């Protein structure tokens, strides 16, 4: 087993839960998960190719770092670990052509000036020491926090190393970044598609990916999104190599989903051919997307035991400023009707679907947050909430609602997202 550190994204708890669920779904055995802020540590046995695939599967993980050394002491002793010989042997990807290297430090407390200064001197000294025999470049980042963009643009993983120092309570872990999130691909799938649908509010692709991953359980191969909008969830499902089914009440949304998914398959498969990567397996999507009302329709094709739902239904009209509580209540009431209509229909017409990952809106009002008050009713219909965490632990977490939903928000948003996974009783 090798120890790895996962650098978690902006919503660390959600990222953490996504990792554990995917390791279970993919049957990758692991031990001793331990989370400290933005870092998750665990041990697993995994090939390089599988690790790369795992990185691409996870919407909430920014980097995966392989831990090479562990020591007790202070950062001023790191030179004893990171000797030139050890760097060449254990850290750098290669030494035959130019070596690019940089440092990142993750620590619950930020480094003090003396530590920053010392580490920078150490980095430049290392460069000088190696310079006679090797062609070396040090990529300096003043806060020792290299972004995935910097790691990728400077080709640190392929040509040298991003050396990562993780400070824990008693000791330091030192490792080398093995994989980083492919930021170019996210930009392309977010911005490149032919039919963005600003009307339905933009679901960030990484969040869509996390919703799919949190909703999955092993053996389930088909994602059904009954409120598919412009198809962002379905797009991420296709990239995760899952089968898809989608519907929407709005004809224009159906057309937009079809155009976006066709574009995605064409673009990705052309790139895969050129770069030798994996292709999206489904090449025909007609018959998989249709117009339907999620509160009334049946669809035999989607009513199977290997299908699960991952969906973001309508979250209400976009808000430009904080709404008054009594206006928000009107919106929430209409949305409650829609959501209950959906769960009732699911129960009556989709009896084989066992897991449902779904986004609820939480409206920020002048009197505080307003939640959809329908959990008991959904329970009466026959769906129970999956507990992401034991309730004592959940209370201590940021980004968890008082009733155990995972919260996702950005500072400028007036409608937050609350994510639940339900299981049919
Ligand atoms: C927030 S968007 C969905 C975003 C989508 N999940 C995605 O990944 O792009 C909500 C969609 O729900 C659809 N909708 C609203 N009421 C519906 C209903 N009763 N049945 C099906 N779709 C509905 C709207 O037309 C809209 O396209």
UniProtKB/TrEMBL annotation:
Pfam family, one: UPF0020
InterPro entries to which the protein is assigned, alphabetical: RlmKL-like_Mtase, SAM-dependent_MTases_sf
Domain Ribosomal RNA large subunit methyltransferase K/L-like methyltransferase: 200-259
SUPFAM superfamilies: S-adenosyl-L-methionine-dependent methyltransferases
Domain of life of the organism encoding this protein: Bacteria
Descriptive protein name: Ribosomal RNA large subunit methyltransferase K/L-like methyltransferase domain-containing protein
Source organism: candidate division Kazan bacterium
């Amino acid at each position: 087993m090798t120890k790895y550190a996962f650098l978690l994204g902006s919503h660390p708890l959600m990222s953490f839960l996504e990792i554990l669920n995917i390791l279970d779904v993919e049957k990758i055995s692991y031990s001793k998960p331990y989370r400290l802020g933005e870092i998750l540590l665990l041990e697993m046995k995994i090939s390089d190719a599988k690790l790369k695939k795992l990185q691409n599967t996870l919407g909430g993980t920014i980097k995966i770092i392989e831990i090479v050394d562990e020591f007790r002491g202070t950062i001023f002793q790191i030179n004893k670990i990171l000797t030139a010989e050890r760097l060449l042997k254990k850290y750098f990807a290669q030494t035959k052509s130019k070596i690019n290297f940089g440092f990142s430090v993750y620590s619950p407390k930020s480094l003090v000036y003396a530590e920053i200064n010392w580490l920078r001197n150490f980095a430049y000294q290392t460069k000088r020491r190696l310079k006679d025999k090797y062609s070396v470049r040090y990529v300096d980042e003043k806060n020792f926090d290299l972004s995935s963009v910097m790691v990728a643009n400077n080709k640190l993983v392929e040509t040298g190393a991003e050396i990562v120092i993780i400070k824990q309570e008693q000791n330091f872990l030192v490792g080398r970044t093995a994989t980083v999130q492919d930021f170019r691909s996210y930009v392309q799938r977010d911005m490149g598609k032919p039919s963005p649908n600003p009307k339905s509010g933009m679901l960030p692709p990484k969040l869509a990916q996390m919703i799919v991953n949190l909703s999955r359980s092993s053996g389930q191969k088909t994602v059904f999104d009954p409120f598919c909008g412009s198809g962002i969830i379905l797009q991420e499902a296709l990239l995760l190599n899952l089968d898809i089914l989608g519907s929407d009440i709005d004809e224009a949304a159906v057309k937009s989903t079809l155009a976006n998914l066709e574009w995605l398959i064409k673009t990705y498969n052309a790139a895969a051919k050129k770069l030798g990567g994996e292709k999206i397996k489904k090449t025909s999507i007609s018959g998989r997307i249709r117009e339907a009302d999620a509160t009334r329709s049946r669809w035999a094709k989607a009513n199977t035991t290997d299908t699960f739902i991952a969906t973001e239904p309508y979250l209400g009209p976009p808000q430009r400023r904080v709404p008054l509580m009594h206006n928000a209540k009107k919106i929430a009431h209409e949305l409650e009707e829609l959501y209950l209509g959906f769960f009732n229909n699911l129960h009556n017409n989709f009896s084989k679907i066992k897991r449902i990952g779904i986004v609820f809106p939480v409206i920020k009002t002048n009197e505080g947050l307003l939640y959809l008050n329908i959990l008991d009713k959904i329970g009466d219909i026959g769906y129970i909430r999956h507990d992401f965490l034991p309730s004592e632990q959940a209370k201590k977490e940021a980004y968890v609602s008082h009733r155990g939903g995972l919260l996702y928000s950005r500072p400028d948003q007036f409608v937050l997202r609350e994510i639940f996974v339900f299981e049919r009783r």
